[in-house]
Each structure stands twice: as C-alpha cells, then as structure tokens.
Amino acid sequence: MIVAFKLDKIPKINLCLLPTPIVPLDQLSDYLGGPRIYMKRDDLTGVAFGGNKNRKLEYLLADALQLGADVIITEGAVNSNHCLQTAACAAKLGLDCELVLSGEEPENITGNFMLFKILGVPIYRVDDSSERRRLMKKREKELISSGKKPYIVPTGGSNAIGALGYVNCVLEVVNQAQQMNMEFTHFVHAAGSSGTQAGMLIGRELYSPKLSIVTISGGISGEFLTIETKQIIRDFEAQFNVGLDLDQISVEVETRYAGPGYEIPSKEMVETVKLVAQLEGVFLDPVYNGKAMVGLIDMIRSEKISKKNSVLFLHSGGGPSIFNYSHIFS
Ligand SMILES: Cc1ncc(COP(=O)(O)O)c(C=O)c1O
Question: Which of 11, 14, 103, 9 is closest to 55 using CA atoms?
Fold first, then answer.
C-alpha cells in the first residue's frame, strides 16, 4: 500500500527552470486529425541546452554535495547528452567533473563533443562502452588517493536517486493539468537508460494512477530496458519505502520505432523531425525524441491512442546532437 511520500523533504538542488512549460501542439494535432497533443518542454530545463538529465541531477548532485564530494565522474558515448548536462551542472555548482567516454573521438568536432571542449572537462576515452565502468572505478581510486572526494553518477543518471527527477516531473504535470483544468491520458517519452521511465512509473503510482506512461526505445533492447527499470523501481522502494508493489506495476517498452538501431537514423525519424519543425517550430533530436514522435504519430494513426485522449509528449532535450546528423538533413 502506498504511504505518504514527502518528496519535498528529499535533498534537492535547484538547477532547473521549473515548472517547464506545457504547450499545445495545435498544428500537429490538426494535421493528424487525432487527439490534442501537448508537449512538456523539458528541453527547456535550463542548464546547458536543457534536457531530462538536469532534473535527475537536481537530486544526484544534492546527494553528492551532502556526501562532501568535490569531483563528479560520469560516463557515456562520445556524444552523450547526459555527459554534457552533468558537466554543465557540475560547473554551475563549482564542482570538478571528469567524463569517461566510449567510441572514437569524432573527426568533426561538433554537437555535445564540442561543448565538452568548451567546458574544458577532462575526457578519458575507451573503445567500448563495456570498458567505461572499470575506468571510472580506476579514476575514483586515483582521485581518492590524491585527496579528492569523487562521486560517480551512473549512465544517464539512472538510479533510484536520479529517478526522483521524474517522480517530481509527474507531480508537476498533475499540478499544471489542474491549473489548465484538464487531465492528460497519456504521457509519452523516449527511453535510453530507464531513469525517466522508472521515475514516471513511480510518479504515476504516487500521484496520477490513471495516467498511461508510454515508453518508446530509441534502439536499446526492450528486454534490457525493462530489467533496468524494474531494478530502479526496486531500489527506489528499498531506499524510500513508499509501498510500491512491483507486481502491480507493468513495465512496457515499445521498440518498434527505433528503425535500424540506436543512434542510426531512420527515414521515418527524418520525416518526423522535419514535420514537427515545420508545423511547430520545435526541433527534436534524431536519437530519442525524433523516434519517440514517430511512435506517437503511428499510435495515433493506428488509433491505439484515440481522438478522445489528450496526450502529453515529453521533449527530453538532446538538441545539440542534431548537429552530428547534418549529412542526413542536408
Ligand atoms: C535527449 C534524451 N532523451 C531521452 C533519454 C532517455 O532517458 P533515460 O536515459 O532516462 O531513459 C536520453 C538519454 O538516454 C536523452 O539524452
């Protein structure tokens, strides 16, 4: 049984511009002749170029500061949105930050990688993502022996503490919907490392039991994401004791819209990114939001989401990564 959960008693640092706006996508809704679609503009969370990780970092970096950390270590791919947001939030708080990045250093320095250079964060590179964890642990040890206090933020900021960011987002949406005198039936979002989905599902259990969370993978396996999300929810319950019953929470990930794979563009994604820019003046990133919007449009066209519904689409940021895809948009 759910017990009263005092989210406002959990240490949090104000890094984001909250609440982020909810805006109607009138032209897109009319074009599809479907339900009214709204967008939760988490691309406008503030630090760097915005994005969903800033919400998670409000809790993760508060935890780091409470533990006396003075340097943050995190990991991602060479163009990681998460690494950009972590490095920028750390800078804002006067903390050092180190990045462990997998993949080849890009020949053309653009997008997030260029922003890492501007931030001047030390970069430790490995060839494969499976090597990142070991290198982070090595750096942690080295920093401790040099008298520093490192704090590791996991991939995508996705753990029980990071998930609090999207528990808070669901509460924010409930309050905004009340002010707008409406109720959202679906909250649609892209998934990559599961923290957003876990937070939203927990938020739904706590604050908005009728809300459907629709999770769309940008190419990471559905099985992997489901296991990760369940683990984060389990860890959250172990840490915060809110009375979540994992057997009652159905964790579903839609994988049909990823096209050829993670970070690989699909024709549908390119058309959708152009459509949303041309109808709404909003740019979606090619890796996450572009593919999630392909999914939402298909669900509307196939009437999986009916005209009677009112849909909220999370714009989770990732803006700078669009510049890595200039070859497909030119
Ligand atoms: C822009 C963007 N949207 C969505 C996601 C997915 O969020 P999560 O990692 O919490 O699943 C990510 C990162 O993975 C991201 O960078």
Answer: 14
Place of tokens 């990114």: 273
- SS3 state of residue 123: strand
**Same domain, yes or no, for 79 and 23?**
no
Q: Which atom number of ligand 1 is nearest to the Cα of residue 166?
A: 10
Q: Which of 100, 123, 156 is the last residue of a domain?
A: 156
Locate the ligand 1 atom nearest the alpha carbon of residue 195 and give its number: 10
Does any ligand 1 atom lie closer than 6 A to the CB of residue 79? no
Ligand 1 atom closest to 80 (CA): 16
Please, are residues 177 and 205 in contact by the beta-carbon 8 Å criterion?
no
Same domain, 148 and 187: no
Residue 282 belongs to domain spanning = 7-51+159-329
198 and 284 share one domain: yes
Q: Confirm or reject: Cβ of 316 under 6 Å from ligand 1.
A: yes
Domain count of the fold of the chain: 2
Asked if the model's pLDDT at residue 4 lies above 90, the reply is no
Alpha helices (runs of H) in 242-282, residue ranges in sequence order: 267-280
Please check whether residue 2 lies inside any domain of the structure.
no
Q: Residue 157 pLDDT > 90, yes or no? A: yes
Dump pLDDT digits (tens) for 36-82. 999 999 999 999 999 999 999 999 999 999 999 999 999 999 999 99
**CB neighbours of residue 33 within 10 Å:** 9
165 lines ligand 1 (CB under 6 A): no
Closest CA to 246 of 228, 230, 229, 232: 230
Q: Give the amino acid at 104.
A: E
Considering the chain, what percentage of its residues have pLDDT values greater than 90?
96
Distance 188 CA to ligand 1 centre (A): 13
Give me the pLDDT at residue 1, please: 79
Ligand 1 atom 13 nearest Cα: 192
Whether ligand 1 lies within 6 angstroms of the CB of 196 is answered as: yes
The answer to the question of residue 283 being in a domain is: yes
> 111 and 222: one domain?
no
Q: What spacing in Å lies between the alpha carbon of 191 and ligand 1's midpoint? A: 5
